[in-house]
Amino acid sequence: MTIHRPTIDRPMPAGQVGRSVPRLEARQKVTGRADYVHNLVVPRMLYCKVVRSTVPHGRILSIDTSAAEALEGVYRVVTADDIRTVVPNPFYGPAFHDQPVLAVEKVRHVGEPVVAVLAEDPYVAAEAAQLVTVEYEPMEAVFDEIEAMTSTAVVHEVLKPAGTFPDLKHLVGRRDTNIALDYRLRRGDVDAAFAAADHVFAHEFKTQQVMHTPLEPMVSLAEPGEDTLTIHTASQSPSFVRIEIARLLGWPENRVRVKVPHLGGGFGAKLYIKLEALVACLALLVRRPVKWSLTMEEQFYTITKHASTFRIESAVDKEGRVTGRRCEVFWNGGAYADIGPRVTQKSGFTAPGPYDIDNVSIDSYALYTNRPPAGALRGFGIPQLVWAYESHTDLIARGLGLDPVAFRRKNLLRDGRPQATGTPVRDAAIEGVLDDIAARMAWETPFDRGSGPVKRGRGIAVGFKASIAPTTSVAIVNVAADGSANLYLSTVDMGQGSDTAMAQIVAETLTLRTEDVKVVHPDTDVTPYDMATLGSRSTFHAGNAVKLAAEHARDQIAALAASLGLPPGSNYAPADLFKKKYGMQAGNIIGVGTYIPEYKSPAPETGLSDNVTPFWMVGGTGVEIEVDTETGHVRILRMVNACDLGRPLNPKIVETQISGAALMQLGFTMFENMDLDDGQVTNASLADYKIPGMHDVPDQMESVITEAEQKSGPYGAKGVGESATFGVSPAIANAIHDAVGVRLTEMPLTPQAVFRALREAELNSSTTSA
Amino acid sequence: MRGFELVHPGSLADAIGLLDTDDDTVRPFSGGTALMLMMKTGVFRPSRLVHLGRIGDAYSEITASPAGGLRIGAMATLSALEHSPEVIRVAPVVARAMTRLANVRVRNVACVGGNLAHGDPHMDLPPVLAALGGSVSVAGPQGTRDVAVEKLFSGYYETVLGRGELITDVVLPSQRGWSSAYLKCTTRSADDWPALGVAVSLRIEGGAISEARVVVSAATEILTRLTTAESALTGAAADESTFARACEAAAAEAEMVEDARGSADYKTQLLRVYLRRALTQAVQDGAVS
User: Is residue A143 within 8 angstroms of chain B, CB to CB?
Assistant: First the structure.
């Protein structure tokens, strides 16, 4: 394996932004000194273990806790009735208030928490959990997203959207449906475009349910105070946890304190409420600290990535221009909505892809099923969409006998042109990303197609994503009397390197060394609001807030200098100013920055808006592969991932974000798959659910930072955590088609699937020739 | 799982004595790599584990016999096999198979005896040892006996080992003149459990195959010798057309099991391809001298 590193640091004037500063926490992590909730123990703490549903859909007839309660060392066994003494209406969720803290009256997926057992010894709690018996009356279940559209099995009797989202209001009180959200977009005259088309192409693509697999499983610990509650949690969204727990308890926000140290990976799994609601209720119920740590197996029943079906249809004129596109996307959200409806809408509106198409219709449906819930996972639905529209794009090019890159160039969205929503695309290097990949792969030159049973092929794909909007970030920069600075921020460094990047922004603005800026980890009693660490929003949103806070501090330092009679532009150190002002090393300067970008909500009927996102992320992938036609095995010889991330704050971290995202998507593309049998995950362990290892890394991997600038971003930067996931799946499917002439439309692209397709193609051609 | 008792017998006889019980929550423990997975998932809840690490160094020795065979102590680790000069000289196919078996951390603690006695059909070592004509020495309350590796397995995670019986050694007959190869195939990540393992051992004299052993594992419920494939090879020239006939015979003979790694039909195709490649590789690598 070789990893091509073209890094050229392009530092800003103070030499901090644009420099590949080594991660601030790297030494702590490799020496085992970094803090994780996993290692946290507090006095009088109880461990929680939950009893989980064994049926996908059923009414709870009875719960017998007597044997568990009788086990020596068990402190208490808790059911939903007990939870209700703390929280009368114990339902939570970011989009819908549909998820019970413990199952109430019925269960909606295998693995749903039904009973909680508390003990001082976690092994006693685990053993006691096995002794609880729950009797269910099985109900008809639905697992497939297409069947859920019309099935008689209904997961939730009535929809309960949270009040916070205007586009969910029409769903309040809707009954007997599994459609949690029906998002639509209509632009131009699609029917007319299809009627006038020279060619029409229609395809259906599917993706499978997979899991984030953070190597640190979810963990939360709640400590009750006199009239307060402190929650230590491995969460990507401490501010949301505080607000939602306060809502559940009916408390003011300031009585709930949420603290987050380091995370062992998040990828969208640790967002919103996961374990926090139950540990909060338990801690208040028994007035003792309660810790709940999931096993790897339990994570498969907690949050996953949406399986999906995407029907896409294009009208193309005789010049090879796409004139109309119909998109129907069905998202398998599982038993609880979590953030699924946001995926359906926020990602749904980019379903036609980064192409300039005048006539577009999109219908995107969030569906309840009796599978484990699905939510955000690195890419927030975009990889499912790009998988479909870039496979489709390739098929159109092949159908018309056009080069796939040339066909894309003809149809790409260019600067200033309106995207499907009507929002003009700005600062989005879609063509730059495509050009960079094509140039790296020498697309115009002849390609070795292999010999014998091993055939070679290459493929390319490009996708884009709108940032989640409108969201707010607040930052505080505290300059101490010796001139050193602390940054107070609720952005969570879950391994992506945000602490380092944010410290670089402070250092650049205040002319400090990045290594001298201390980042205070999220503690909602101390650090200000940040919507959440998700959707690649932190660099842009939190980064802008941090820059504003640092500028605010810088301006106050200048004002202090002026108040001390120093002429503007004179050379002084902040420490001297403090000493001059206060007569000794004393005082602080506090800079505060709040950032919320402008945004216009899409019109409910048409889905249109002229300002739907503050920025666009662009990512593309090119691969060269070989296919063993005797077995269907695909080997990736070379993978090029290019992204538009504006100007890189820290080029080296950016490159690892690019390669990491691409490898994660590689696993989802090639083999990761939650095997379900009647709603039960039959491979819920690292022994049986395989994620990529070192031997799965392509022989040659290249991470490319496409030349770009996000003018509204901090120092020209924007997010990149997800961008390299976009193109991976379709690039590989396109390369397989290129190598052996078969098209796979369902992920994962297993050797067996490739082999079957080859065999079918062989049979078809022999039938045709006969 | 709450507590269990861990005992450390100081001799083989003591270990056998401790294991001579009908209580199936009492089990031997050597490297523990497989047992710990079962304990963590709650599949196995022991009352007592009998640790074999202190029964004596003799049980982890690897010695070459003057005749060209090998004796491997059951407590030898897989990395000891991987790096042993005797193994590399006498049975290079064994050392090569180790490099893609699990990972270095597992190989450093997992032991040969446990690897066999676990009875998991997805293991790499059993088919290799079976193809080499290996047998195990077994000691138990009734004394000792020898069992051919190919006869050791009686079902999925089941062996013919009786109450209180322990594998003490693996014995390989002379490998001189034998050409051997082992190939495995994964269908998910590269480090997944194999979808198929195929081991071959051929004696080629004057361009013709005089003896052949073909063993398939992972795709079948238990490790299986493919005798019709062996018949197709025996007495025939070691060439492509013979191999093709043997592969078709193997495909017709082996009873494949469908699982998450592939359908039975697909695994049959893998066997066709991988057996041919294994035979070709064995010929290419040449005979042990």
Answer: no
